[in-house]
Design goal:
This protein is α/β, with parallel strands linked by helices. The protein folds into 3 domains: 54 residues, no CATH class; 126 residues, no CATH class; 300 residues, no CATH class. It is 57% helix and 9% strand. It has 23 helices and 9 strands. The strands form 3 sheets. The protein has a 4-stranded mixed beta sheet, covered by helices on one side. The protein has a 3-stranded antiparallel beta sheet with strand order 7-8-9, with no helix packed on it. The longest helix has 31 residues. The radius of gyration is 26 Å and the shape is globular. The N and C termini lie far apart (54 Å).
Length: 511
């Protein structure tokens, strides 16, 4: 009986709780608080906040290594490489890390047996060995796993586990996106050297979250969100004043500015592209790009993008006031002309054809955006347009928010990289806002008809939040100045612009 209670206690979240779990739980509660008490984008922050709670409940590493399990292991989840000597990380349940300093190299840890591993893994710590050339075979790996230990090989590393005396094949344990994959018995010789087949699947990790996570991993949710955005959005202001598309383009400046800064900070081109896209203030686009280019950064990039989208009313007004004079903020613009129905119907068709040929990497996003708008403007598919713009997008938003939150587990989220991403994210967002405002000033200077530079801030893709912020700032200066419809032009252009920018990045940097 005591043994049963002891095992239950060891498997409980209380025993496995680590301070990093507590930090992430507090972040999740903060998101929920900001949504409920402050009204910051509750449709986004409540699902994401609760998803953070789900993803950071401690669970047995042999069943649920990093929060909510990412689904059953399958052959599609394994990256096959030529098996080489590489870095090995050994985890226990607590998740603390012990790194062997270079000064200990004289220990010559060229071979680790079971007893040595167990000593180093005592007291619930994890070990990072960079000098180990060989680990004593399959029995060592299995014995450690049976004790609830996890053997992790970094996503870009490999390890040779020596053959057993009885001639058994080497045993490879690979860690892939939060999963342990057990591979045995060479099956064939392929492009990357020896190819391995799965020994078994983890029996605990199949469930509803596996299906939900596939919506992100397979790039399903972002295009569906764009379908709803297209069905909800009136492209009329953009069609009535086509020059505002230039403001939407100028507001993408932060994407490429942050990309270059990220490259300077040591991120790869794929990672830098995923970080830079935050500057478009478009959560679904950021997720779409990140899953293609840098899936290991998905949690940090997605949370950063949605956080700054929710904080549009806080971030943008100071930048807008700093870069404009009171006289410019008081500029009144002529009311936009009505757009005929035929032009409204033709625009999504022509717009899709043009942008898709320019940036075919974003074809799923652009296709669903313009398709949703065609449903709205054709006036013969009201039922489809209403469904796409209400119930359908609400369902996808719930699933997307929860899965994004659950991806931000403490073991992968609380890192120096995440801090850098959040800093780069706010830089990208601020530069995008400034780019739109400054181009608005230039447009006002060269144009015969007056242009209020504030509408340039709406060139970011946060629809319709950014346009509402423009209206709010202008209303504070002049209660009779109405810029909302004018701001919707660059706002819609920003949605299209961020998707085109994503397509360009994917075309250049997709592996």
């Amino acid at each position: 009986m005591l043994e049963i209670l002891k095992n239950y206690w060891i498997d409980s979240g209380f025993y496995q709780f680590h301070w990093t779990n507590g930090v992430m739980l507090l972040i999740g509660l903060l998101f929920i608080y900001l949504a409920v008490r402050r009204g910051f984008e509750p449709l986004l922050l409540i699902p994401i906040g609760f998803g953070i709670l789900i993803g950071n409940i401690p669970y047995d590493v042999t069943k649920l290594f990093v929060g909510v399990y990412d689904g059953p292991v399958s052959e599609n989840d394994i990256h096959y490489y030529q098996i080489e000597i590489g870095e090995v990380e050994l985890w226990s349940k607590r998740g603390e890390m012990l790194t062997l300093p270079a000064a200990m190299a004289e220990l010559k840890l060229e071979k680790m047996d079971y007893a040595a591993m167990k000593r180093l893994l005592s007291k619930g710590r994890r070990l990072n060995l960079t000098k180990v050339e060989e680990i004593d075979g399959r029995s060592t790996a299995l014995r450690l796993l049976d004790e609830g230990r996890a053997i992790m090989v970094n996503t870009h590393s490999q390890i040779t586990l020596s053959s057993q005396p009885d001639g058994q094949a080497p045993f490879l344990v690979e860690f892939r996106q939060g999963r342990m994959a057990f591979v045995d018995e060479p099956r064939a010789s392929g492009k990357y050297g020896e190819v391995w087949s799965l020994e078994k699947q983890d029996p605990w990790n199949a469930g509803v979250f596996w299906m939900i996570f596939r919506g992100i991993e397979w790039g399903v949710f972002p295009p569906l969100i764009f379908l709803g955005i297209g069905a909800l959005t009136d492209f009329g202001p953009l069609i009535a004043n086509p020059r505002t598309i230039l403001l939407g383009a100028a507001a993408q400046l932060g994407i490429f500015g942050a990309l270059w800064i990220a490259l300077f900070m040591g991120f790869t081109a794929q990672q830098a592209s995923s970080i830079g896209i935050i500057g478009g203030a478009d959560g679904p686009t950021a997720i779409f790009v990140c899953t293609k280019l840098a899936p290991d950064l998905l949690g940090a990039v997605a949370l950063s993008a949605y956080s700054y989208m929710a904080m549009v009313p806080l971030i943008q007004p100071p930048i807008m006031r700093l870069l404009t004079t009171k006289k410019e903020r008081l500029i009144r613009m002529e009311q936009p002309k009505d757009v005929p129905k035929s032009l409204r119907v033709v625009f999504p068709i022509v717009g899709f054809m043009l942008t898709a040929f320019i940036a075919n990497g974003a074809l799923p996003l652009l296709g669903m955006l313009f398709f949703g708008n065609l449903l709205r403007e054709s006036l013969v598919t009201d039922r489809l347009a209403k469904t796409a713009g209400s119930t359908f997008i609400d369902i996808v938003t719930i699933l997307l928010g929860v899965s994004v939150g659950a991806k931000t587990n403490a073991s992968t989220f609380l890192t120096q990289e995440t801090i850098k991403i959040f800093i780069l994210g706010v830089i990208a967002f601020s530069v995008s806002t400034a780019g739109g405002v400054l181009f608005g000033k230039l447009m006002n200077w060269v144009s015969k008809n007056p242009v209020n530079p504030l509408i340039g801030a709406a060139g970011v893709s946060a629809v319709p939040m950014a346009a509402r912020v423009v209206q709010k700032v202008a209303h504070e200066e002049d209660p009779h100045n109405f810029l909302l419809m004018h701001a919707m032009g660059p706002n819609v252009a920003g949605v299209i612009g961020s998707a085109v920018a994503a397509g360009v990045l994917l075309s250049y940097f997709a592996k």
